[in-house]
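Supplementary Note 2. Why include the ligand at all?

Several targets in our set were suspected to adopt different conformations when bound, so apo predictions alone were not considered sufficient. For every target with a known small-molecule partner we therefore ran a joint prediction. The input for 4'-deoxy-4'-aminopyridoxal-5'-phosphate is given below.
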Amino acid sequence: MRKGLGSGVYGSILDLVGGTPLLRLGRVERFFRLEGVELYGKLEMFNPGGSVKDRIGLYMLMDARSRGLVEEGAVIIEPTAGNTGVGLALGAIHYGFRLVAVMPSKMSLEKELILRAYGAYVIRTPTAVPPESPLSYYRVAEAVRNLLWMIGGRPGEGEVRKVVEKVQTLVREERVEDLRSVLESSVEPTPYAYIPNQYSNPANPRAHEETTGREIWMQTGGRVDVVYAGMGTGGTITGVARYLKRAKPSVRIVGVDPEGSIYSLVKKGMSPREAARHARPYKVEGIGEDFIPSTIDLSLVDEVVVVTDQQAFSMARMLARLEGVLAGGSSGAALYAAVKHIKTGGVRGVAVVILPDTGRNYINKLYNDRWMRENGFSTRDEEVLGELL
Ligand code: PMP
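The joint prediction is reproduced in token form.
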């Protein structure tokens, strides 16, 4: 902080990442008649990029810099549901990197436009393809990286744009063989193209262990008894669980899984391969997977609650009206799971539910009644949520 300035004055947008508020959801408690529980929401939309993923965007870039994996002027490429892209964009601006975000087509247009507003390139990929397909967003990110490595040194702006356009064309025209040959070509790595890869990067769960988990501990004065969190990469739940279970072994960690994802099946003992055969598309963004990333430690997750798109969306819409908290569909899923688990599991004490991102990302989706109806969802939220009363 500069001399002569008051508190609440910062030197960089990155200084505003983390330290999010914990809000008592008293109206939710009363509406759903929760007894003997203090329910708190961890408001991750208060991060400057609007989501919990600002934390890992920053951590993964700090880690890559400190290990010499990237040089100034590097292109950061990341497969992302959008929010990690925003977190990386903030870090990229600060550290002098460029960013290519690779996003499945199901993710909202708002998130794409926000990324472009921060100066990022965006490539869209098909949603319903297995992770090993050359058209999956994971593999497409690798194709971009390989093409940038082929350039050799630091790619110029025109070269980056050309690579992005080329890959977007290959994806749009489903030129699987061309993509495969880029993926299989042996190229010399350079420090000018780097995929942090939130699905395998230990800096992802570490960010949550050192920040999110610690914050929950401090903010509840160690009184926290149970935490509810959605699972995408699993970085949030794993990091939070590591910190809290070390501090207080009795803390219960409840994972939230959208219907169609494989986490609940694998937690029940099914092999990931077998579970992948049961994977189905769903609409809620940012949570659920069709494979098990190395960033999740399912042994730290005590229970998994499955939530449908309808339940998630109705609960997010209800949260906005009850508390004035405008959050995304994964927040609705987490809150739905929390209320259900508290009511059916006889939970007592201090419960924290992680609300990962802002509803502004979805204003033209779950907050648009027409979109809801066109996608076969009811807009009668109280009726849908009546099953919890
Ligand atoms: N909700 C939203 C909206 C997200 O973007 C993500 C990240 N994919 C999550 C929840 C899940 O977080 P994590 O990857 O840490 O499991």
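The first strand starts at residue 22 and ends at 24. Residues 51, 53, 81, 83, 230-236, 285-287, 328, 330, 356-357 surround 4'-deoxy-4'-aminopyridoxal-5'-phosphate (CB under 6 Å). Comparable summaries for the other entries are listed in the accompanying table.
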